[in-house]
TrEMBL record:
Residues 4-195 form the NAD-dependent epimerase/dehydratase domain. Pfam families: Epimerase (PF01370). This is NAD-dependent epimerase/dehydratase family protein. InterPro entries: Epimerase_deHydtase, Lipid_A_modif_metabolic_enz, NAD(P)-bd_dom_sf. PANTHER family: BIFUNCTIONAL POLYMYXIN RESISTANCE PROTEIN ARNA, UDP-D-APIOSE_UDP-D-XYLOSE SYNTHASE 2.
């Protein structure tokens, strides 16, 4: 990769990815709304765009060619369609950041649990039309479907689970630490539901690897192993020295940001067979929890 366009790149694993690309000597362009400062100085070229405004996208990306495009800011299939149409013939590979939310709830989900080639995608809807978890799921499913059903650009869809790290601005994992420290019960439907995670560092590594690879289609990327809410609670208790608890009250103001209807874990063995080595979740999770104390 000599020239790369990153749609996003100023937060969480996107920032880590850009830093890696710069260190590798890649010519990087980042395309954002220009609202979040970045630390890259003169090491990147910056263009300003608003994904929901097609004219803004045209003005920002009407010139240039890139070996790889990383799309981390797409929240509707129309946004993806606008970019692909504009970049036709000017990009060698497209890497789309997707999510395990394309799957129904379940454990050990493989890529075959959602087939984007069978999806009847719908264009023309703004991102505001995709509200809540179900809306997010539909948006990512339809974006994947549009991307992978087109044949003009080789494309990969990376399906990440829940991303955690010291740079996680959502503070969803920190929520558990704070509630246990205050001995506030956490509200969720099933404490024994299991979840998959990946670190922001590993997410960036995987995206970089994907950009250098030739595989196409969807692929799961997840740290090795998964954990239940109850197991996570015990781990937090061991770090804080305090006892936490759960409640199933639907009216509680302390509902878990991970309080999904059931387990959500994915199988990343396909990527592992292609040569990517994932870290074990339990090797880095304790240290991350300690950083929140």
């Amino acid at each position: 990769m000599n020239k790369v366009l990153v749609l996003g790149g100023t937060m969480l694993f996107g920032k880590r990815l850009v830093r890696q690309l710069i260190e590798q000597g890649t010519e990087v362009t980042i395309a954002t709304r220009g609202m979040t400062p970045d630390p890259f100085g003169s090491s990147v070229r910056r263009v300003k765009l608003e994904r929901q405004d097609r004219e803004s996208v045209v003005q920002a990306l009407n010139e240039g060619e890139w070996d790889v495009v990383y799309d981390q800011t797409c929240y509707s299939p129309q946004e993806l369609a606008d970019v692909l149409e504009l970049l036709k013939g000017r990009v060698g590979r497209y890497v789309f950041t997707s999510t395990m939310a394309v799957y129904p709830h379940g454990e050990g989900l493989t890529e075959s649990a959602y087939d984007p080639w069978q999806e009847q995608y719908v264009l023309g809807k703004p991102r505001q039309a995709y509200a809540g978890v179900q809306g997010y799921q539909e948006a990512k499913r339809h974006a994947e479907a549009f991307l992978l059903q087109q044949t003009a650009v080789p494309a990969a869809a990376v399906r990440f689970p829940l991303v955690i790290g010291p740079d996680d601005y959502t503070n969803r994992l920190r929520f558990y630490v704070d509630k246990v420290k205050n001995q506030t019960p956490i509200a969720l439907p099933d404490p024994d539901a299991r979840l998959s995670f990946i670190s922001s560092e590993e997410s960036a590594d995987f995206l970089g690897w994907t950009g250098r690879s030739e595989w196409t289609g969807p692929m799961n990327a997840s740290s090795e192993g998964h954990i239940s809410h109850r197991e996570l609670m015990k781990l937090v208790e061991s770090k804080t020295g305090r006892e936490g608890g759960f409640t199933d009250s639907p009216d509680s103001p302390d509902r878990s940001p991970y309080g999904f209807a059931g387990s959500w874990t994915i199988d990343a063995s396909k990527a592992a067979k292609l040569g990517f080595s994932f870290r074990k979740l339990r090797d880095y999770l304790p240290e991350l929890l300690e950083s929140y104390l």
